[in-house]
Amino acid sequence: MSFLVEENPAKHRFEILVDDALAGFTAYLPRGEVLVFTHTEVDAKFQNMGVGAALIRGTLDQVRARGGRVVPRCPFVASFIERHPEYADLVVPAA
Q1: Can you give the CATH number for the domain in which 19 is found?
Q2: What is the pTM of this model?
């Protein structure tokens, strides 16, 4: 099983392909260099296989590579960051 995480800027989301099939996405609202993550979905046939975690890890790695920051309003993204503190530096502090 191969995972590929790609940004789809036209739809304001990052998508994960599993063996070339769209398996899920995490949606965001762009605010300059900050992306406000609002919702994550993984197709039912790909749940409990690590697809969601791979999606968020790949997304956050890409955000970091381009010097961006995140606001994790999506509970799935927020809990992933809580469980993986190596991504905490990407979070914009609450005002």
Answers
A1: 3.40.630.30
A2: 0.95
